[in-house]
Structures are given as C-alpha cells and as structure tokens.
C-alpha cells in the first residue's frame, strides 16, 4: 500500500529539484500535446528551448531574452514577497498597465521638451501608477477586510478599459491620422528607454530587474521586514505574537509589487513597445505568477525562472513561424508548467512510503 | 441620447439571460466552498466549458448535447484541481490560479477553428397560455430550458444544504475537517465530489455564454465572469438564494450598461464597460465586514496523518 508521510522538515533537495522535474515533465507532456496537434514533438521542443539560444539566428534572439525576461522578473519579484506572506496580488497585469499609462502620460505632458529629467520623471510616475493601483486592494483589505485576490483581479479589467479609453482619447497621438495609440516614445530621445549597449537588449528595465533581485535577496535575508514576511508565511500565529503588524505587511507587499509591476510597464512602453495602445498588455502580469512559483519565491530562482519563461515566449514565436504551432499551444505549455510544479511539490513536504503504517 | 429606445420588458428578459452563467458558476462554487475548498479556477473551467459546449453543439447540431459536453469538460478540468489540492496537498490559491491560466490557454487552442461560426440555436420554451401573456410572458415564460435549470439547481442546492443528510455532512467537512474525519466521514471523497460538481456547473455556465448569451466563440470571452461568480459567493454569504439575487443584480448591471452604450449616453463606452467590475468591488467592500458565515475550514488542506 502506498501512502504519504509528512516530512518533519521540507526536503531541501526536493525543493531545488522540483522545478527541474516540472520542466522535464512539461517538455514530455508538451511534446505529446504538439504531437496531438500534428507537429513533430522533438523538433518543436528543440525549437522552443534550443533555437533561441544556440540556433542559427541566436544573435537576434538572445537580446530578446533580456527584453522579455526583464518585465517578468520585475513583476515576479514583487509578487513573491506577498506570496510568501500569504498576500495574493494577482492583479499585476492591471498595475503593469497603469504603470505604463502613468509613465507615458507623465512624459508626454512635456512633449517635445528634450530635458534629461524627463526619463527619470517617467520612471517615478510609472512606479507611482502601479503603486497607487495596488494600494486600492491593499487599503480595502486593511480597512475593510476585503479579499485582495478578487479586488486586484477586478482592477485588471478596469485598467484594460482605462487603457482603451486613454489610447482613444487622452493620450492619442494628435499627429496620428486618427489611429488609436499615443505618440511613439522610441522616436523621442528624451523619453526613449533605449538599449544601453546597442545590440544586447540591455535597457533600463533589465538593470532594474537585476537591482530588484538583489534588493529582494537582501530584504528577505538581512532585513527585519523580510524576516516578518517569511515568519508570517510560515507561522502566522507566531508572527502575530511576535508583534508583526499584518496591516503594514499588506501595505508593504502589495505596494512594492504594484510599484515593480508599474516600473515594468513603464520600461516596456517607453522601450520595446514604444507607445500606449489598446492591445499594449500581453499578459506578463499573469505569466509572472508562474515565474514566481517556478522560482520557488526565491529571488535568484525567479531570475532563472524568468529567463526560462522568456525562452518559451521567444521559442514559441519561432515555433509559430517555423512549424505553424498555434500561439495558444505555448500558453497551454506555460500553464502546464505550473501544474506540474505544484504537483511535484508534494515530494518536498511528503515522503512516499510503501507498506502498512505502524501503530504509533 | 434616447433612453426611450430601451424596452423595459426586453431589458428584464435579457437581465435573466445575462445572470444565468453567473448563477450557474456561483452555485457550483458555493457548494465547493461549503465543503471547505476554495477553487479559484472558475474562470478557467468556464471558458473550457464554453468552447467544449460550443464545439460539441456545432459538430452534433444539438445545443443540449453541447451543454452536457460542457459540464463534462468543466468537471474534467476540476479533476486536475482536485488532484493538486486533495492528493498532492498543493496550495489551493496557487492551484486555482494555475487552473485558470491553463484553461484560458487550452480553450484558445481548442477554439481555433470555431471562430466566426454560428452555433445551432437553442429553442425557447413555449407554454401555450402563459408565454403569450403581455409583459409577464416574455419575462418569465419565454426563455430557454437551461435558464430554468439554473433556478431549479439553486432550489435543489438550497434544499440539499439545509435539509438533507448529505448537505449536513458536506457542511461538517467544510466547517471542521478534523472533526468530520474523526466521525468517520471521508473528507477527501466528499470534497472531490463537491469539486466535480463545481466544475460541471462552471462548465455549464461557460457554455451558456457561448451558446445562448452571445452566441459565438471568441478567445477569452468569459471576460472575468468566473471571477465575478467567486465574488458572488462572498456576496451571498454562502446562501443559495442570495446567490440568485446577486446574479440578477450583476446581470442587471451588465444589461443596463450595455443598453446605455447602445442608447448613446454621454458617458464613454469604456467607463460603462468598467462598471460591473467596479460594482463588484464596491459590493465586496460593503459585505466583507461580516465573515462569520464563511466555512471555517475554507482554503485549508486536509491530510489524515494516520
């Protein structure tokens, strides 16, 4: 008879191995899925994971890895702080959108000035936009006990409508021949989040993502607030006795994740995407949830997971053009990854025992 | 702006149609939460139900068969959630989220060849004298059968929870799974049943959107209705009849804002489209002060140590 025995301590080895096992399982089942769609499975997996790194056109795809990975890592780092403490911000997509709108709006207000202060101002405005949007569920939770999961998620739909509204109205390019969307920030040097070293994909968003990783690592390991976050997640009752203020923690976690998501949106709108438009957001805020879990809510893990997820985005694009693999198949692939991760996590906390249980 | 273009009879009739997917999904989730499980994957199960029902109805020509398929598809997806949370002891919030992300992708994949197709129409029932009554006829007696099924299901769940032994056991498991286990009830089995029921209901709700309310298939067409259904369960304080009331309230908001859009009110379309979500938040804030009626074991995993 097979049964589960709870481990006295979560297994460290399994905790590290689970993401790898989950990725392998996803590759296997993803291959089956691709085969069911009539695509060569091995070829498809190779295209997704190998082609962007070492393929013929890797010189073009490698910089893309940074461009796609940076927003994922930035958002996931913020989310992981809350997730550790059982504070569920799942509206990062909305905070990302608001960051982009605030950032671009703050810059466009000064068009066509070429002051060097414009870009820093946009960065602050972007972070503020995401922060204020995340403060809505945070304040509602601390003041009225409202569920932050539902409120932050509802605000994604509100932000999407707001995005449509500003790209058709407030921020619409006056010289855009009536097309929706703002002025293109890429063609305005003062506001352009350009590559720092040409051809590397390295822009300010990537730099911020790396800073965020270090910041989160120090916070969680060397700082009282980080200790409170971990304590609340692992032993909520003990945390309360130790004098952790839950309301402050909610405000801090949601606020930080909102500000980081807002930053990600701002760097995206002023760099790779270039303009505020109706379909500006592509779901980074939701994919970042997978990244956070895949990285075990650990800053360094998230950095690696963000890279892997960026790889599936880029590889998915290549597979789409080379093998006509549907874009949705990649979405399923990413969803599967989270499934397997959660399933294999069983082995971290439980031991599989065979035989009859002993009488205690 | 021409508000006289809005016909109140049609408005109330379409309100009931708009409320039905919400009601179906919310009743399912209500039972799941009563058993102490928080399944945040409603949105994912709904959208998979929507495409499974749509595809089956198109291929077979029978909308009713589509609804059956949708219920099975929703339940099948919920099995994944059950495996994760009940057997692999995974965090329920994370598992529910993964179900939604997976479901959105899966539905987009399944639905590729069904974009722009019209599904077979589900006939409205016609009761000889009653359906011909002015005003009351079209509002109460001129709908499709699934709408009445939703109301009947509400009544059945209410009766089951309040008066049946099964309902009592379900609530016991939701309130205190350790005590229920000690009394000899199979906690995991009961929760599994509840999760399957919730999945089937969410699937039905999704199919109602793609087959009757819209009716066509577009990617991501549930647009947060699954999440609103989750909010509705809180709104209803875990009571079936209040879920019905809430569904009609939200259905009303949706229909009124759509009618205002059509009538060309001076408020921009985007702000009208925001209103159902904003009102959901508002209602959550007003009602979240009282949490006493929430099942005590909600969201906590159960593992029998021996």
TrEMBL record, chain A:
Q: Where in the cell is it found?
A: Cell membrane
InterPro entries (alphabetical): ABC_transp_permease (IPR001851)
Q: Which UniProt keywords apply?
A: Cell membrane, Membrane, Transmembrane, Transmembrane helix
Which residue ranges does UniProt annotate as crossing the membrane? 68-87, 94-111, 117-140, 149-171, 202-220, 249-267, 325-347
Q: What is its main location?
A: membrane
Q: How does it sit in the membrane?
A: Multi-pass membrane protein
Q: Tell me what this protein is called.
A: ABC transporter permease
Source organism per entry reads: Leisingera daeponensis
Question: What is the taxonomic lineage of the source species?
Answer: Bacteria, Pseudomonadati, Pseudomonadota, Alphaproteobacteria, Rhodobacterales
From TrEMBL, chain B:
**Membrane spanning segments where?**
6-25, 37-58, 64-84, 96-115, 135-161, 192-214, 220-238, 245-265, 271-289
| Cleaved signal peptide residues | none
Where does this polypeptide localize? Cell membrane
Could you name the domain of life of the organism this protein comes from? Bacteria
Membrane-topology annotation of the record: Multi-pass membrane protein
Principal location listed in the UniProt entry: membrane
Q: Which UniProt keywords apply?
A: Cell membrane, Membrane, Transmembrane, Transmembrane helix
What this protein is called in its record is ABC transporter permease
Species of origin reads Leisingera daeponensis
